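Write out this protein's structure.
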Amino acid sequence: MAILCGTDLSARGAGAAGVAAAWAARAGGPLVLVHALEVGVAEAARASLDDEVIRLRDAFPGLAIDARLEYGLPDEVLARLSAPDGAAGGPVALVVVASLGRRLPRWLLGSVAERTAQSAPVPVLVVRDPAPLRAWLAGEAPLRVLAAFDFGDAAEAALAWVASLTRLANCHVDVVHLAGPGPAPARGRRAAVTPGTRLLADVQASLARHDWGAPPPEPRIVPAARRTGVATGGAGGRGPADLIVLGTRRARRRPVPAVGARPRRPRAGRRQCGLRSGPGDTGCGPRWRPDATPEPPG
């Protein structure tokens, strides 16, 4: 399967493209390198894109690279190309983008990385510092992965993707569920099983459903009040996480409304959606909120 990388031809875009090329070489698939052009001169952009292809081919000899210049908004172009019936020339396994890049000529809510993570039908890797990922893909160091889990469908898909990482190369995985306070027992009675124990068993059952390249990781249940420092605490006590993986939609009691079904008024000073990445400077997916614990039915 192909690795699709969106680049704005900036320095950060070059770092993300290097990670995408290394990932494609490790997985044995082609790299589709795309530069989306909304306005501007196509000839200058094509020349810069060709120079980027030459650089990547020198670094990864034998790697098949398909360079494309597409017109449109970058997130819309990447979502279209990564769709099952997209024009990427085959199925896409992963979309890779840089966390920051050049500004678009017009104002839009959120960054390209945020909107791509929300709209793409496949996993999206947002790269800030390519060094830990490049070292992992080269087999030089394990990747410290922190996976946030909340029992939703998106979280299950994220776990499946993390399991695929362990089959690709060596990973140290830490699965964390942020738990709110459980229901109080009836007066005069003590709970035989604590809510944390039940949660731990449920998370372990979810982990057992996936194919891990090593024994399944031991999950952690962290009280939501202690969520500060979960990412910096590291993957299983091994240091700060290099990669944070989470689903793009939270588990909810009611179905998530369709985009535009009920518009909300944004609050001043608060981003409506964002990317949350740890000190290891790589992230995957929009920001995960600590109130993602599903409520009991009824």
